[in-house]
Amino acid sequence: MITNRDEVLENALRVFAKLNYEKASQTEIAKACGLSKAGLLYYFPFKKDLFVAVVDKYVFDSQRPENKYQFSSFHSLPEFIGQYIAGVKKTMQQLINLLDDGYNPGKCSFNLYYFHLLTQVRLYYPDVEEKVKSCLKWDYQLWFTAIQQAREKGEIRQDLEVEQTASMFHHVFWGLSFEEAFSQGLDTEELLQKLHFLYSLIKV
User: Fold this and answer.
1) 3-class SS at 81?
2) Cross-strand bridge partners of residue 203
3) CA torsion, points 41, 45, 47, 51, in degrees to nearest 10?
4) CB count, 10 Å around CB of 39?
5) Is the pLDDT of residue 3 over 70?
6) What are phi and psi of 203, to 5 degrees?
7) What burial letters (b/e) apply to 21-36, b meaning 16+ CB within 10 Å?
């Protein structure tokens, strides 16, 4: 029996990710929560408000650097890459654990269900463009700061444009995440190898 708001959000996440916003009726969500429809409405009278709360918690808040990473001081770009990968793995595993309840209607990776949720965010979340831009900017800014620091220390080539280099690292993560969601999900060891390969191309 679901007895608190967080458990409602967790079960609603699974329904929205595995069905979609249109198919995820309040009756369906209530059933997943072990509640009557009236019980669900006690927490969230409107489906859109529930969807927004799910997205805020499991998309935007989970991608905030302070929630996703635990950066200690790093002295080199490879050290930053290692801590970045650790944060990606931690967040990805948390989301997989939430989505993997034994029900896999599409028989696909749970990463793909998460990307399926992201497409719905673009369609149904209010004022979504600014929220998504902010989310992506957080990741880009991490790379910008790390690349800039590496250049100032003489660790990487001085002729590199920090903005373009940071964008390159940023897009490797997001591009590989999307591509591999269609198979078995993001391989963080492969991501680590690709990021280190990029580093080998720019180091002094």
Assistant:
1) helix
2) 156
3) -90
4) 15
5) no
6) -70, 155
7) beebebeebbebbebe
